[in-house]
Each structure stands twice: as structure tokens, then as C-alpha cells.
């Protein structure tokens, strides 16, 4: 039996429990949390087995029923689940704990269907904060239905916090020119999502860029004078690399603070959470423009003073500030100038991550949450190997240095080409290890578990194929973007491509083809996930053919590319149209045009290279 997260204590009992013998779901009272738990369980059992079980109210349990109850013990997430020949009982120390027990039962039902093993489970989490962070700014703005689906996925794996990263993708009434034409989330959608999260015992925490990463705001002619860099940003063409690398607001201008304060105070009241993430990460330009004369010997004083003002806005509105810790980590002498209740989000995404940052925050005596990542950003398929190592290490360091929780991140760098389905593996692994940090899952076992529980793959092979797929191609959409736009930046991988062994690329090309063929044999209810995985396999195969074409035709190396230029264009157009369809299934139109225009430029360039080789 697989469970994600793995439970803390399970005792196997003799016998079996037949769902067909269960006559009712009994709740102790008409308390709204009990009724919601009962109706949720009823609907899910009906979906999984076709068995419709009525809900009753009784203060005592009896045979042939599922009995649900909770104690009012505050925050506690401890629950007990018992399955025996007489029926099923779930008792939680709180409504939230009861709901987690129901999720465990549903995972058991999914595997055993109508005849369940008799057992007793006692379970509780290791970390209080178990979060997932999803980018809704850098290209994709999900439909509300997609966000609700994401909430349900988080709850299934006992994740209790969700954050959505916002720069310009909320419809700020105070700055309408910021989001017009970009399909933002609306206040009504946030309010509805917040309520939906509460039903699933998830804290929806607002997260908003307030210092760095203000690309769209500082490109408005009205506000370009607030940019730290003294440039006419409104006159520059749209640039996905520029969006990531620059656009820090000028903290010495009082107008900057007033604008950010106004935006926070419009956004903050929509959320019931006690937290507000002010971000304040990657302020790359600080001290390199308007404030150059004010930051000798360094910009840390300017940084901390502005962050304090932003944090105080949050506190004055009754919330606890969270912020990314990458800047203050290097200036621990100033960290205690920030409000004492501040929660520092300690992010590092490398497979070679060390304990240093986590130890430094611990030594500073501040509250920290460790933040690994699912490694999907800019990729056609997630690098599951890299993500698994990063997530495991970062959570282990969190345990060692007494972090308060885990916030697992899913970013959308460079237009957000990565699909949310690809993030599910990393999301579930982070959930498993933040609930049970001593979980026995190795990567192979976890791949089998999620294949079965998430995609109903009885062969337990799908996740291992996805893991392998993510390792086949080093070259991603950001690298394509840098090549087509002649960017000399971190995303430019042309030197690596020139030095890459063509035999490896060709071998990986044929392996991607094999993986695609194997995936066609899977049968799953999750149609959209499967379509996205198939597209990823086809796109990895196309990219490898494209790289071999570049080595042969652009760099004149001794290579025989498997596809001609015309074949690359024809196949690429088909894949682009399929991508457009898949984007629109889960997301608003938002910034799809950036992906489309990039690929159209790539197809034009392939044609030009082809023509030049014919003369």
C-alpha cells in the first residue's frame, strides 16, 4: 500500500472491510466542518467506486458506517483512522486533522477499491507550514477552475498553504494600466478562491512583488521615473530576459513607497490569511542607477530601510510579513532591524545545495521556512532528478536547523511554458517529506507511489518515464529565446551546444521517441495531464532534432540531423498549435503571445539557415 505522505504509525489488523456493507456516513453533529467533511467524502467515494453512501447524524457510532468526528483542540493536525470488519472511524484533533484523515482513507480506497484492508493509523505532521508556491505572473494566469483544481491537489497531499506569485497579474483598481490586456486575476476571483481554500483547510497567502521584479509597473510611462535604472523603459521593446534581470523600484523616492503601499492595501483585504509575502528578492539594480551615490560602500542600508517600511504597512494592517531571504542573508548584521515577526523564506534550487543558508538563518535566531523548487521553469519537461535532490536536501536542512516549515516553489520564468501537471511530482514529494521528514521513500519507490495515486498507473512506470524525459535535453525554452534574440546572458547556451557530443543528442532523440511511444500505452482518467506529458515528450524530441540541425547547418559540424529544416518547421508548427490548445485549457489567454511569437521567429530562422545552406 502506498500513501503520500507516508503515515507515522500503522497497525495491520486481521480481516477486511467491504465498502458495499457500509450503509451510512455518520457525523456527530450538524457542525459545518463535519458536514463539509461528510459530503466531500461521500462525493469522492461515489467518484472512485460508484457507491453512494448517505449521510446521517448521530452522537454514537455503530456498525457498518463511516464515523467522522473531531475534537476542538485548536491547531492540532493529529488524526486517527481505523478500518475493521465493523466499519471505518476517523477522528481528528481539529476539523483540519479530520480532513487529512479523510484524504488518507481516499488514497486507500483508490488502491483497494471496494475491499479495504483492516488497519489502524495514527498520524501527525512534522512541519506546521507545508506550502506550495505557484507563479501566476510570468506568462500564464490560470483560470479560476484551474486554481481550484490546484487547491484540491494540495489538499490531497496534506499541503496546508498556497501562495500565488503576483506582479502585474491582479486587476489593481488603483493602477488599471498595469494589467489591461493581460487577463489578470480579479478581486472576485481571489475572494472565491480564498473561500474555496478554507473549505479545503488551506491558507491562501497573498504574495506580491514590492521591490524587485516590477517589470510591467516600471515600464509604464507614468511610473518609469520610479525605476532605479535611469532609462526610458516605456520605449524599450518587451523582453523576457530583461523582465527577470532588472526593474527594481527606487526606494529613495517617497512616491515609490506610496505606490507600493496603495497596491498592498488594495490587495491585502481580499485574503483571510494572517500572512502577507512582500517578496523583496533579487533587487539586482539597487544602487546602480539613481541611488548610486547613496549606497557606499553597499546598498544594504537602502534595502533594509525600504523593506522595513513595506513590512510595517503589512503589520499595521494586521498581518505578519513574509519575505524572500536572499538579500538579507548576506547582511545578517541588519536582519534584526526588520520587524521581529518577519518570516524569512530561505530559497535555494540547486541539486548541490548546502546547509549554509539554513544554518545562517538559524544562527540569526529568526523564523525561517525552507524553499526548494520543482525545477520546471522554462522547461518542456521538469527535471525531476534535480528537483528530488534539491527538495530532499532542503527539507533535511530545515529539520536540522528547526525551520518552521517548507514552501515548495513552481516558477514560470521566460513566458511560463512549463505545464502545471509537470510540477505535481515535485509538489507531492515536498508534501510527503514536509509531513513525514523520516519518510522511507527513495526515488524509485516514490515514483511508483505517485504513478499509482496521482495518475492511476497500475504499472507504476509513468513517473519514472517522466523523470527520464526531464534528463534528456539540457536546452530549454529560455535558451531558445536567448538564441533567437541574440542575448548574451545566463540563458545563452550556444557554447555548451557547440561542445556537446552529437552522439549523445542523437541517442537522447531516439530515447525521447521511445518514451513517447510507451506513454501511448497508458490509460488514465487525467486526460489533460496525459496530453501535456505527451506534448512534453514530443517537444523534447523536437528540441533534440533542432539542436542537431543547428550543429550541422548553423555551426557546420560533422553531424547528420534526423530532421531537415522543412521537417522541423512543419513538426514545430503542429506542436505550437497543440501547445496553444493546451495553454487555453487551463489558463486565460494572458501572455500566450510571447510563446507564439518566439516560436514563429524560430521557424523563420530555421528557414533562413536552410536557405543559406543551399547556396
Walk me through what this model shows.
With 615 residues, the protein is α/β, with parallel strands linked by helices. It folds into 3 domains: 9-123, Chitobiase/beta-hexosaminidase domain 2-like (Chitobiase, domain 2), CATH 3.30.379; 129-439, Glycosidases (TIM Barrel); 472-613. 44% of the residues lie in helices and 14% in strands. It contains 20 helices and 15 strands. It has helices spanning 32-49, 95-112, 144-156, 176-179, 187-199, 215-218, 240-245, 254-267, 300-316, 356-364, 384-400, 424-435, 443-455, 462-469, 477-484, 494-499, 502-519, 527-554, 565-586, 592-613, and strands spanning 9-18, 24-27, 55-57, 65-70, 79-84, 87-92, 115-123, 129-135, 161-166, 203-208, 275-277, 320-324, 343-347, 367-371, 405-410. Strands 10-9-8-15-14-13-12-11 form an 8-stranded parallel β-sheet. The protein has a 7-stranded mixed β-sheet with strand order 1-7-5-6-4-2-3, with helices on one face. Helix 11 runs parallel beside helix 12 (424-435), helix 17 (502-519) runs antiparallel to helix 18 (527-554) and helix 19 (565-586) packs antiparallel against helix 20. The longest helix is centred in the C-terminal third of the chain and has 28 residues, at 527-554. It is globular and about 80 Å long.
Amino acid at each position: 500500500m502506498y500513501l503520500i505522505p507516508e503515515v507515522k504509525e500503522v497497525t495491520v489488523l486481521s480481516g477486511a472491510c467491504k465498502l458495499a456493507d457500509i450503509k451510512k456516513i455518520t457525523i456527530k453533529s450538524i457542525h459545518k466542518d463535519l458536514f463539509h467533511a461528510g459530503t466531500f467524502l461521500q462525493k469522492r467515494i461515489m467518484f472512485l467506486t460508484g457507491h453512494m453512501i448517505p449521510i446521517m447524524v448521530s452522537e454514537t457510532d455503530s456498525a457498518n458506517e463511516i464515523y467522522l468526528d473531531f475534537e476542538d483542540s485548536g491547531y492540532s493536525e493529529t488524526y486517527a483512522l481505523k478500518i475493521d470488519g465493523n466499519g471505518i472511524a476517523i477522528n481528528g484533533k481539529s476539523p483540519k486533522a479530520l480532513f487529512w484523515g479523510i484524504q488518507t482513507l481516499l488514497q486507500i480506497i483508490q488502491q483497494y477499491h471496494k475491499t479495504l484492508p483492516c488497519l489502524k493509523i495514527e498520524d501527525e505532521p512534522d512541519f506546521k507550514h507545508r506550502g506550495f508556491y505557484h507563479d501566476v505572473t510570468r506568462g500564464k494566469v490560470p483560470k479560476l477552475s484551474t486554481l481550484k483544481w490546484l487547491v484540491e491537489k494540495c489538499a490531497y497531499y496534506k499541503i496546508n498553504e498556497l501562495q500565488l506569485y503576483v506582479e502585474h497579474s491582479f486587476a489593481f483598481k488603483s493602477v488599471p494600466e498595469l494589467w489591461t490586456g493581460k487577463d489578470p486575476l480579479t478581486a472576485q476571483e481571489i475572494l472565491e478562491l480564498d473561500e474555496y481554500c478554507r473549505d479545503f483547510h488551506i491558507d491562501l497567502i497573498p504574495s506580491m512583488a514590492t521591490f524587485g521584479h516590477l517589470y510591467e509597473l516600471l515600464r509604464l510611462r507614468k511610473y518609469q521615473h520610479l525605476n532605479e535604472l535611469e532609462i526610458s523603459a516605456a520605449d524599450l521593446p518587451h523582453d523576457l530576459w530583461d523582465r527577470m534581470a532588472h526593474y527594481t523600484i527606487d526606494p529613495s523616492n517617497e512616491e515609490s513607497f506610496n505606490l507600493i503601499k496603495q497596491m498592498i492595501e488594495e490587495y491585502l483585504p481580499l485574503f483571510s490569511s494572517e500572512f502577507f509575502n512582500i517578496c523583496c528578492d533579487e533587487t539586482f539594480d539597487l544602487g546602480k542607477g539613481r541611488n548610486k551615490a547613496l549606497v557606499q560602500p553597499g546598498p544594504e542600508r537602502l534595502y533594509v530601510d525600504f523593506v522595513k517600511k513595506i513590512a510595517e504597512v503589512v503589520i499595521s494592517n494586521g498581518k505578519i510579513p513574509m519575505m524572500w531571504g536572499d538579500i538579507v542573508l548576506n547582511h545578517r548584521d541588519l536582519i534584526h532591524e526588520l520587524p521581529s515577526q518577519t518570516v524569512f523564506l530561505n530559497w535555494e534550487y540547486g541539486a548541490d545545495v548546502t546547509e549554509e543558508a539554513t544554518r545562517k538563518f538559524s544562527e540569526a535566531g529568526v523564523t525561517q521556512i525552507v524553499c526548494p523548487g520543482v525545477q520546471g521553469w522554462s522547461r518542456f519537461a521538469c527535471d525531476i532528478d534535480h528537483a528530488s535532490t534539491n527538495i530532499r536536501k532542503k527539507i533535511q536542512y530545515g529539520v536540522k536547523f528547526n525551520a518552521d516549515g517548507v514552501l515548495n516553489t513552481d516558477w514560470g520564468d521566460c513566458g511560463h511554458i512549463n505545464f502545471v501537471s509537470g510540477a505535481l511530482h515535485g509538489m507531492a514529494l515536498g508534501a510527503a517529506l514536509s509531513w513525514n521528514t523520516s519518510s522511507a521513500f527513495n526515488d524509485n519507490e516514490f515514483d511508483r507511489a505517485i504513478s499509482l495515486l496521482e495518475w492511476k498507473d497500475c504499472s507504476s512506470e509513468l513517473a519514472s518515464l517522466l523523470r527520464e524525459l526531464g534528463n534528456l535535453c539540457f536546452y530549454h525554452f529560455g535558451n531558445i529565446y536567448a538564441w533567437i534574440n541574440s542575448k548574451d546572458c545566463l540563458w545563452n547556451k550556444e557554447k555548451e551546444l557547440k561542445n556537446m557530443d552529437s552522439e549523445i543528442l542523437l541517442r537522447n532523440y531516439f530515447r525521447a521517441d521511445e518514451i513517447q511511444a510507451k506513454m501511448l500505452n497508458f490509460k488514465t482518467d487525467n486526460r489533460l495531464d496525459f496530453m501535456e506529458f505527451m506534448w512534453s515528450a514530443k517537444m523534447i524530441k523536437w528540441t533534440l532534432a533542432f539542436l542537431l540541425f543547428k550543429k550541422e547547418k548553423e555551426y557546420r559540424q560533422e553531424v547528420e540531423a534526423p530532421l531537415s529544416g522543412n521537417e522541423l518547421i512543419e513538426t514545430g508548427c503542429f506542436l505550437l498549435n497543440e501547445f496553444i490548445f493546451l495553454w487555453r485549457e487551463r489558463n486565460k489567454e494572458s501572455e500566450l503571445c510571447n510563446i507564439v511569437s518566439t516560436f514563429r521567429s524560430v521557424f523563420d530562422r530555421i528557414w533562413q539557415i536552410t536557405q543559406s545552406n543551399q547556396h
